[in-house]
Amino acid sequence: MARRPLIAGNWKMNAGGADGCTLAANVARLTAGFGNVDMLVAPPFTALAAVAHELSQAPRKVFLAAQNMHFEMSGAFTGEVSPSMLKESGVEWVIIGHSERRHIFGETDTMIAKKVIAAMRERIVPIVCVGETLDEREAGQTLEVVQKQVLAFRGALAENPGYGVIAYEPVWAIGTGKVAKAEDAQEVHAMIRKLLAAASDELADTTRILYGGSVKADNAAGLLGQTDIDGALVGGASLDAAGFAKIAEAGNQVAAAQA
Ligand code: PEP
Description:
This protein is of the alpha/beta class and 259 residues long. The chain has helices spanning 18-30, 48-56, 83-88, 99-103, 109-121, 134-138, 142-158, 182-199, 201-206, 220-224, 241-258, and strands at residues 6-10, 38-42, 62-66, 93-96, 125-130, 165-168, 208-212, 231-234. It has a single domain (6-258), classed as TIM Barrel (Alpha-Beta Barrel), CATH 3.20.20. 44% of the residues lie in helices and 15% in strands. The chain has an 8-stranded parallel β-barrel with strand order 1-2-3-4-5-6-7-8, surrounded by 6 helices.
């Protein structure tokens, strides 16, 4: 079945002030004609409310995501932000378990599963990231590692098939300029979809699985043309509205050709 491509921009710790509003407005303007794809931006916490306001006046729908959240609703968690706080800021999506959260901030599969459950409960769409390190890939452990990560939260996604999103982001490809070969990425995406199918066909057919890791305008079409790649999670290249729009254009063309 055709899944609508999602082109998502993870701004990381960039564009956290007024420049975030300008970037979001430019993304909306430059992608206004691409009706076959969903667009999303994930600014830092500090810019969420302002970008939500900016996007409410935009010429197209651009979804707004946070880059992380805590799984508790309130309490003594200094420096953390809860799902309900995100909602109050106009956020409807959240990136969970990004490799930088896993590897720099020590997030575990257990914590990530709790966050996915909390997001689904609060009606915030989770984009859950998985991916192997270079050592794991070279040791031939890619499928095994990604399978373990997916199985940790599959049950939560199965509660509401098609609501949550998975992003396969090989750690060695993030921010390195080393993009995965389209057919290698497709192999992992197909394995993830098979894991979803083991829970239910509906979950497998409706869950969007994004690829992330050095996606740029010149490699997007090859990746997005793969059967099980339903969009892109873009880091560095999403900070340039024109380049990000070119990735969206590639997704738009692939979707139009498949329609
Ligand atoms: C990311 O941060 O999710 C990412 C994929 O980064 P980049 O596109 O810069 O590799």
